[in-house]
Prior knowledge:
The protein is an alpha/beta fold. Helix content is 31%, strand content 20%. It is built from four helices and seven strands. It has helices spanning 50-66, 90-100, 120-125, 151-169; strands spanning 18-20, 26-27, 39-45, 73-80, 105-109, 132-136, 142-146. The protein has a seven-stranded mixed β-sheet with strand order 2-1-5-4-3-6-7. Helix 2 links the parallel strand 4 and strand 5 (105-109). Helix 1 packs parallel to helix 4 (151-169). The longest helix has 19 residues, at 151-169. It is globular, with a radius of gyration of 16 Å.
Amino acid sequence: MTHTGIVDEIAPDLGxxxxxxxxGQALAEYGLARMPGAYKLIFCFQHACPGCHLTGFPxxxxxxxxxxxxxxxxxxxxxxxxxxxEHNTFEQMLADQRKYxxxxxxxxxxxxxxxxxxxVLMQRYRNGGTPWxxxxxxxxVVVFGGFRLDAERLIANLKKAExxxxxxxxxx
Length: 172
């Protein structure tokens, strides 16, 4: 079965209440409305998810690096806990943030601490698990939701969009 979450739907609020900035300091409030950039990419992970560390974080790191300094896209990583609660803690999310040293915001969605409840973000976006990528376009529409994201293809497409936006705002 192919999971796509809520592709082609308007992105709902993330529903995540615990956020930290790129240096690990608590943020009082964060969400889609506070994310800069025309495009928004949310990476959903769990500390205890081998695929998140083998493929998810490396893909995210490649994307973050490709758009370092760009105003086109912003990124957030959210630990969306739906199982293995004793290993997918807020403290482990902070450890993953330090390990990968990505200059982005991290969130923790605790899954209400019980098996099967799923995190609020997962419920709203109908994620199939982790690692899960969500891409939201400038109109606020979810254009991708899935386990595997082709980083090189996305980079090429967004660089093309960035160049078109730059030429459209340049003086004739």
